[in-house]
Amino acid sequence: MSATNNRSNSASPAQEPPVLDRIDRAILKTLQRDASISNVALAEKVKLSAPACLRRVERLKQAGLIKGIVALLDSEALDAGMVVLIGVVLDRSTPESFAAFEEAAQKVSGCMECHVVTGEFDYFMLLRTKDSNSFNRLHAEQLLYLPGVRQIRSFMGLRNVLSTTQIPI
């Protein structure tokens, strides 16, 4: 599983995001590449004293721009090398059916992401599993029982062309 559980998007009170200067942006870019960097090394890279750098990082955390620090794991080594994208269409578009599906989707084994989308589908889910046999079991044991689902369409990834956690800053 992932190092953190960011599956809920609880709404917080409307808050103005802080204005980011050049140093804040440099800190965020550096931490996106390597969050294990020491504060002293980070301070050196962004040309600040270590205490000033630590204060800025704490301010960015308090502002919610840094949500957590995670380890990126090798999915192949952990028998989760197959990526499956799943398009889901619900049978009804009611707040209750959406809520029931969303609650159940958070419990699906290997579900890394679940997005409400526009267009032909109501949701896209991104799952990781070992191989097509393990996905077939997951489909039969969990996906078929998701509440309110009219249609599920699965797309198995054949080759990873691009995968990043870095947000353009």
Report on this structure:
With 169 residues, this protein is of the alpha+beta class. Helices cover 32% and strands 18% of the residues. The protein is built from 5 helices and 4 strands. Strands 2-3-1-4 form a 4-stranded antiparallel β-sheet. Strand 2 and strand 3 form a beta hairpin. It is elongated, with a radius of gyration of 20 Å. The N terminus is likely disordered.
Give a short overview.
By secondary structure, the protein is an alpha+beta fold.
The largest pleated sheet is described as: 4 strands, antiparallel
Average pLDDT number: 91
Percentage of helical residues? 25-40%
Cα-atom radius of gyration? 20 Å
Number of helices: 5
Strand order of the largest sheet: 2-3-1-4
Structural classification? alpha+beta
Please give the alpha-carbon distance between the first and last residues.
27 Å
Which short descriptors sum up this protein?
32% helix; disordered N terminus
Describe how the helices and strands are arranged:
Layout (H helix, E strand, L loop, with lengths): L21 H12 L5 H8 L3 H13 L19 E9 L4 H11 L5 E6 L6 E7 L2 H10 L7 E8 L13
Antiparallel strand pairs: 1-3, 1-4, 2-3
Helix pairs in contact: 1-2, 2-3
